[in-house]
Amino acid sequence: MRHVHGRARRAGAALAAVLTWAGLLAGCSAGGSGPLGLGGRPGGTSAPRDAIRVSPDDGSTAVPQNQRLRVRVPDGRLEKVKVVKEQDAQATLVAGHLSTDGLTWAPDDDRLALAARYTVDAVALDSDGRRSARHASFTTYVPGKRFIAYATPENRSLVGTGEIVSLAFSTDIVNKAAVERAVRVTARPAVEIRPHWFGKNRLDFRPEKYWKPGTKVTVDLGLRDVEAAKGVYGLQSKSFSFTIGRSQTSLVDAAAHTMQVRRDGRLLATVPITAGAPANPTYNGKMVVMEMLEETRMNSQTVGFGGEYDIPDVPHAMRLTDSGTFLHGNYWDPTAPGVANVSHGCVGLRDVQGGSSDTPAGWFFDRSLVGDVVEIVNSQDKTVDPGNGFGGWNLTWQAWKAGSAVK
């Protein structure tokens, strides 16, 4: 048997649709003296061919996104309107509504999809009782430039109570308000969640206070066909969700060389640490664990220093900032934690080469989640910039809300 290609199947489906509509209009002759006319009476005449008007025009191409789709009749009423959108090899029915007088049909969403083909089938009855039908189709503009958002955290992940929803866009965003409106972040149980822009290509979301354990957060990206800059349109229409785990916060005291780890408000342990040396102090402020690495290489040249260090196997590394602040195991200077600050800005915990769960660093790593909060106090450096990693918790709620583009 010969393989039937997708194009042939689509053509067959289209033909079936046409025949269905033809059947709806033609009816059957049963005992009449002549053919059944479109007016529903033997020998009747049909309404004029152009009685149903469709905009955009039949056969139009490269229709812009802001052109309005409308089906109209000058009198009588529209009996049925069916609009199908074909995009990315998927066909979907377009929801719409009739005006109260029955003369106009419009889609519920007035924004046309880009790179799509629309087909319109309509049936109307004019003021003389004559029925007419119209079939039309058009295609919309295919943009040459697209953008996407790289989202954090991962879908279906379990994260700490300090997690921030962060969208990093592949292009600079000019129409910030349009992009912001196209993203929806909700929580169960419900809590107010607000956006904040960092620069031209990053949009973060968080509640006023840390998330409550057990909260489920859903992110809806309605970016498809949203114009971020002139001629640059979004590609994504997707949703993802994540769940908030138990509450764990850690307080690093750089002057006392200690870290207090609290779980659900209860002190689990006080761990000895080493922070940044006087020449390279550690940032103060609230930071969030961004990623967790069992082992990683740390090279001073990648973070703006000279050739001071290049350690190929740093164990139990947890990133706290984009600029390179980590909380990690330290096996090369085991006497420093609890005694002196000797690092280049990171927070070090006692560890062994290759890492071990029996060390302070291994113990903390095994009990941590991406999204946990680490707050550093009593260091000689400034407070971390809110846009450096997920430092947005250092902003007041009012300052955070002021970073929205939708006023």
Would you give an account of this structure?
GO terms for molecular function: acyltransferase activity; peptidoglycan L,D-transpeptidase activity. This is L,D-TPase catalytic domain-containing protein. Pathway: Cell wall biogenesis; peptidoglycan biosynthesis; Glycan biosynthesis. InterPro entries: Big_10 (IPR041280), LD-transpeptidase (IPR050979), LD_TPept_cat_dom (IPR005490), Transpep_catalytic_dom (IPR038063). It holds the Pfam family YkuD. The structure is a single chain. The chain is mainly β. β5 and β6 form a beta hairpin. The strands form six sheets. A nine-stranded mixed β-sheet has the order 23-28-20-21-22-27-26-25-24. A four-stranded antiparallel β-sheet has the order 1-2-6-5, with no helix packed on it. The N terminus is likely disordered. It is built from four helices and 28 strands. It starts with 5 loop residues before the first helix and ends in a 6-residue tail after the last helix. It folds into three domains: 100 residues, Immunoglobulin-like, CATH 2.60.40.3780; 101 residues, Immunoglobulin-like; 147 residues, L,D-transpeptidase catalytic domain-like, CATH 2.40.440. The chain is elongated, with a radius of gyration of 31 Å.
